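Student: Send me a single protein entry containing the residue sequence and its fold in token form, directly below this note:

Tutor:
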Amino acid sequence: MEYSKIRLGGVPEHFNLPIHLAIENGEFKERGVDIDWTTFKGGTGQMTKALRENEIDACVLLTEGIISDIIKGNQSKIVSVYVNTPLTWGVHTGAKNPLDNYQHIYSKQYAISRFGSGSHLMAIVDANEKEKEIRKDQFVPIKNLEGALSSLQSLETDVFYWEKYTTKPYVDQGIVKRIGEYVTPWPCFVIAARENVLREKPEAMIRMLRTIHDSTDSFMQDENSIALVSERYEQKMKDVERWFYSTEWAIHGWVSDQMVKSIIYHLKKAGIVDQHAEIPEIIWKRT
């Protein structure tokens, strides 16, 4: 069989385990797709850059991050929702930092993986909803989770937004404190692909998406997934169980226009996207 190669990327987090299982089990190759996976520790900001620079064909990344970057010129489209449920962001500070009140974070220094990343955008959206403002000079790029832990411990920064279950082991170890939570008001992860790949390999993209949706469906139906996540990602069973039963993956490629409009509204309201920005087509319309 001749395979169509697709360079796919995502963060090293438990949400992407269904894709890894499909790769390991040869499910993509059964549909004629060869997945070349790349792990991006730097998160969504690193992936939008990789899409722009043709280092990757498609990525699993934060919904608000890719929408913001498409509006700013990224020649990519959202091809499917990946996780339907919202993301719960933990709001963290260093264990030795005297900061202990979520309401007192807005004048502090924020660790972000990079500008345009989820850790950057969510801090602004959260502050905006509470009618607070964060200046640009309050943000300190730290590349990834490891950089954030180091920055928080050294008190170089005071606040860091990251998915709460990913950081839970570090909270349990006393490396950081979680002083608050913020839940995104939209589905948290989508799959996006470069426009040239969608033009050149539309059938391969559809086969890739069908394989992912089948794998996420099987993953959700199998309670053994809890133990597998716990083992692979070194998380406590009770934490994984809570996460598993509060997470719903997409099992089809439909993307809501209203959801996209809602996110654009919030991005404009927070000043992340210019009020008068021209909005390109965000969603891949299959022909």
